[in-house]
Amino acid sequence: MPRVRGLGMSFLSHRELHRRALGIRLLICDVDGVLTDGSMYFGPNGEVMKRFSTHDGTGIVLARRAGIEVAFLTREATPFARARAEKLGVRHCLDGVTEKASGLEQLCSRLGVSGHETAYIGDDVWDQPCASLVGLFFMPRDGWLTRRDGVHVILERGGGAGAVRQAVNFLVAARTARSSRASDR
Predict the structure, then answer these.
(1) How many structural domains does the chain have?
(2) How confident is the model at residue 180 (pLDDT cuts 50, 70, 90)?
(3) Domain for residue 102, yes or no?
(4) Does residue 63 fall inside a structural domain?
(5) What is the model's pTM?
(6) What is the DSSP string of 97-145?
(7) What is the DSSP letter of 147?
(8) What is the CATH number for 100?
(9) Of 1, 31, 136, 167, which sits with the fewest C-beta atoms within 10 Å of its C-beta?
(10) What pLDDT does 2 receive?
(11) Does 14 map to a domain?
């Protein structure tokens, strides 16, 4: 399993990983365990709080600037994902989706994007059905899936701690490298 500097462990060859990255037009992120560290903070009156990484938020903005559409897909039906999506300008926030594979397929159809043009970042059993539907499936280092579950890359960073930014940096760098090779011709 090759290690990709600045990204993590890839179950794909470097060449295949880069080939797939070049075609990505949509990045779908799970929320709990990916955009957050999976923790829920409860106050004395039952109020809930979640922590999001500003580094991951910057990554999402950079993905959008590079022409990669971003969406959130989560089983939780809480205001957290919607609030984070709104803050970052993410237009597609699918919350309360218990069958994530179906949600992913519907979103791709609505956007006119194929599964091969889609990358997904997920961390747990609810995300696993999406692995066979996408071109690249990333998992934070503290996720619960394996290569057998369809994971293509285990990121160096954990959920809510820069994992999304790592994946985005890789996808944007692949696009930038392709653009500079094309302009050199």
Answers:
(1) 1
(2) low
(3) yes
(4) yes
(5) 0.94
(6) -S-HHHHHHHHHHHHT--GGGEEEE--STTTGGGGGGSSEEEE-TT-S-
(7) G
(8) 3.40.50.1000
(9) 1
(10) 81
(11) no
